[in-house]
Design a protein that fits this description.
The protein has about 375 residues and is mainly beta. It folds into two domains: about 1-185, Single-stranded right-handed beta-helix, Pectin lyase-like (Pectate Lyase C-like, 3 Solenoid), CATH 2.160.20.10; about 205-385, no CATH class. The chain is built from three helices and 31 strands. The chain has helices at about 1-10, 30-40, 325-330, and strands spanning about 25, 45-50, 55, 60-65, 70, 80, 85-95, 100-110, 115-120, 120-130, 140-145, 150-155, 160, 165-170, 175-180, 180-185, 185-190, 195-200, 205, 210-215, 225-230, 235, 255-260, 265-270, 270-275, 280-285, 305-310, 310-315, 345, 355-360, 365-370. It has a 20-stranded parallel sheet that branches. Strands 4-7-9-11-14-17-20-23-26-29-31 form an eleven-stranded parallel sheet. The longest helix has 9 residues, at about 30-40. The radius of gyration is 21 Å and the shape is elongated.
Length: about 375
C-alpha cells in the first residue's frame, strides 16, 4: 500500500524540510493566548508539540506556515476542546501552502468543522480524533475536511458525530484515505469532485450512509474521476440522518452502504458490505435529486463504474421511508424476491452499457430502475472486458 501511496504522490513519501526553529512545546496548563500565538506565528519548518491533557479553546487555531508538524501525545491523550468556542467556525484551520502534518490529538465540540485544510499541497492527517457531544443539531458538518488540496493522506483516525461527513475529501486530487474508523456520522466518508483517490481498509459503520463518491454541479472543480474504494468494512449504516435541511447529503437514504453519484471511473472491490437497510451499493445520476443544473460543464451521469469481488450480506430489508431518492424502491419492494432490495441498485438513467460493470460478487443481484424495472444483470456482466 505504501508503494501505491508513493505512486499517487501522497505525503507519506514526501520528505519535509529540516526544522527552521526550535520546537514549540505547549502544555494543557498554558493559557489560550500562548497556544493561539504559537499556531498563528509559526515559522516555515516549525514543529509544535502539544502535551497530554485538555486544552480549552474559545477561538479557532489557525495555521499558515508550511513544512509544519503539529503532534500531540496521542489521540486519547491530547484533547483540543472547543465546547466554549465563540470565535471562528473550525476547530483547527490550516491555510498553509504546503506540507503540513497533524497527528496524535483530538478535536472535540468545534462550532463548525473539526479540522479544515484549504488549498494545501501535501497534507498528512494521522491518528486524529474528531467528535461532538450534545444534540446532533449543533454538530459541525465535517470532521476532517481537506478541500482544494493535493497529495493528501488521512490514516488511522476516528471521527464521529459529523452532521455531513466524518471524513470529506472535496475538489482535491491524489489522496489516500485508509485505516480510519468512522461511525455515528451522517456520511462516514465522502469523496466529492475529486480525482485519483484511494479509499481502503476503513471501517464505515453505524452512520446514516457509509461511503459516498459524488460529483456535484456549480463547483470550481467538477467531473471527478479515478476513485478506488476497496477492502473496507461498510456495515450497518442505519442511523437516522441528522443532516442540515436542504443539504445534498440530507437526500441520501438512511441505510446506504456505498453510493456513487455522477462520478467517472469508480472501482469498488473487495469490500465487506453488510446489513445496510436500504441498499448495499447504488449507482445513480445526479438527476435523482430533481435539482436544477445550471452548469454546462457538468456531466450528471456516472460512467465506468465497476463493482466486483465484494462480499454482500443482509441489508435491503427496510428502505428509508423518508427519502425521495428511494421512493421507487419502496413502491416495488413488496414485489422483489424476499421483499428485499437487491445488494446493487442502478438507476439506469444512461443507456450506455459501459457505464456499469458488475461481476464476481457472489449471489448479489442487480436491480435496474430505468427505463424499466429489471433484475436481469446480464448487460453489466463485463468479466474479461476490463
Amino acid at each position: 500500500m505504501l508503494a501505491l501511496a508513493c505512486a499517487l504522490g501522497v505525503p507519506a513519501c514526501v520528505t519535509t524540510k529540516a526544522p527552521a526553529t526550535s520546537p514549540i512545546i505547549l502544555r494543557a496548563s498554558d493559557d489560550e493566548e500562548r497556544v493561539q500565538a504559537a499556531f498563528a506565528a509559526a515559522k516555515d519548518g516549525q514543529r509544535i508539540a502539544l502535551g497530554p491533557g485538555r486544552f480549552r479553546l474559545r477561538s479557532t487555531l489557525a495555521l499558515t506556515a508550511s513544512d509544519v508538524v503539529v503532534r500531540g501525545a496521542g489521540r486519547d491523550a491530547t484533547i483540543l476542546d472547543f465546547a466554549d468556542q465563540v470565535a471562528g467556525s473550525e476547530g483547527v484551520f490550516v491555510a498553509s501552502k504546503a506540507r503540513v502534518t497533524l497527528e496524535a490529538l483530538s478535536v472535540v465540540d468545534a462550532r463548525g468543522d473539526g479540522i479544515k485544510a484549504l488549498g494545501i499541497d501535501g497534507l498528512v492527517m494521522r491518528d486524529l480524533g474528531v467528535g461532538w457531544s450534545g444534540e446532533p443539531q449543533v454538530h459541525g458538518p465535517y470532521g476532517l475536511y481537506p478541500v482544494d488540496a493535493k497529495h493528501v493522506l488521512i490514516e488511522d483516525c476516528v471521527v464521529t458525530g459529523a452532521s455531513d461527513a466524518g471524513i470529506y475529501v472535496g475538489q482535491s486530487s491524489n489522496a489516500v484515505v485508509r485505516r480510519n474508523d468512522v461511525h455515528g456520522n451522517v456520511a462516514g466518508i465522502e469523496i466529492e469532485n475529486s480525482s485519483f483517490v484511494d479509499v481502503h481498509d476503513n471501517r464505515a459503520h453505524d452512520n446514516s450512509a457509509g461511503i459516498l463518491v459524488f460529483d456535484l454541479p456549480g463547483l470550481p472543480r467538477k467531473n471527478g474521476h479515478d476513485v478506488r474504494v476497496h477492502h473496507n468494512a461498510v456495515v450497518h449504516n442505519d442511523v437516522e440522518s441528522f443532516a442540515a435541511e436542504g443539504s445534498v447529503v440530507g437526500l441520501v437514504p438512511r441505510g446506504t452502504g456505498i453510493l456513487v453519484m455522477a462520478t467517472t471511473g469508480v472501482d469498488i472491490f473487495a469490500n465487506r458490505i453488510a446489513d445496510n437497510a436500504t441498499f448495499g451499493v447504488a449507482v445513480v445520476s445526479y438527476l435523482v435529486t430533481r435539482r436544477r443544473i445550471d452548469d454546462p460543464a457538468y456531466d450528471p451521469h456516472p460512467s465506468r463504474v465497476s463493482i466486483h469481488d465484494n462480499v454482500f450480506s443482509g441489508g435491503g430489508h427496510s428502505p428509508d421511508p423518508k427519502s425521495e431518492l428511494v421512493e421507487p424502491l419502496r413502491r416495488i419492494a413488496t414485489d422483489l424476491p424476499g421483499r428485499r432490495v437487491p445488494a446493487i441498485v442502478y438507476d439506469g438513467e444512461r443507456s450506455d452499457p459501459r457505464a456499469l460493470c458488475v461481476r464476481d460478487n457472489g449471489a448479489a443481484k442487480v436491480l435496474t430502475l430505468s427505463p424499466a424495472i429489471s433484475l436481469d444483470a446480464r448487460a453489466y456482466d463485463c468479466a474479461g472486458d476490463r
